[in-house]
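Q: I'm writing up a methods section and want to include an example of the input and output format. Could you take the sequence below and give the corresponding predicted structure tokens, formatted cleanly so I can copy it straight into the document?
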Amino acid sequence: MWDYTDKVKEHFLNPRNVGEIVDADAVGEVGSLACGDALKLFLKLDESKERIVDAKFQTFGCGSAIASSSALTEMVKGKTLEEALKITNQEIADFLGGLPEEKMHCSVMGQEALEVAIAKYRGVEAPVHGHDHDHDHVEGGGQLVCKCFGLTDVFLKKVIQSNKLTTAEQVTHFTKAGGACGGCIPKIKELISEVLGEEKKAAQEKPVKLTNMRKMQLIQEVLENEVRPQLWADGGDLELIDIDGATVQVAFRKACAGCASSGYTAKFVEQKLRELVSNDIVVQEVQG
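A: Here is the clean output for your methods example:
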């Protein structure tokens, strides 16, 4: 027996906004009766066609599906289309005081329907979720992963990333993928690994904002530990003259002073500082 909050029970027993809007501006339909869950969302816009003034739904599914759909219609009323698109499946669950993890796919279905409705209204390609049980590739470039529930790799990776999922079991709870025959479980695990790998790479590539003091310290450390020892090996040296923001002024000494290749040496110093400190650094050679 699932542990439902009072608010989930309230929206299940007394769902808001059930039905259809005959002259709806936007309609989003996701899921299928074959999958066990289906949702049709209707949106009515104001005269400017930017703000949602009414929303209704028709759904086939469990109590959590009804409650999630009811909550979504309440959440979108009064919002602009852009504001509505920012609603996440987690926010739908939070509105209800939480959902059992095994029922999170109901909130995901609500978010799907909202995205599809707005995309169709705007005349753009709807997000690739799948629901094509007969083809390995679906419109929009997604590849079918779960044939039982018609879910694509594009959709599954989005859910994995936005909800920070780390196991195939979690993906099943949030999307139903892998919950029938289980044949797609290995592929789901691959997708999780891909997402985690992409996030790790993005974190490594994300530039760290340095304070001026820390940047100056790093510049001095790199010059002392990485640059000067290499110059010493060739009988040369350099002196740090000044640091002004991203501009580093240096003067070459000994064998490097007045050398025809000092310009090349300055570029070498600049490259080292950009690599180890910040990619906006510019090295200027001065006579000191």
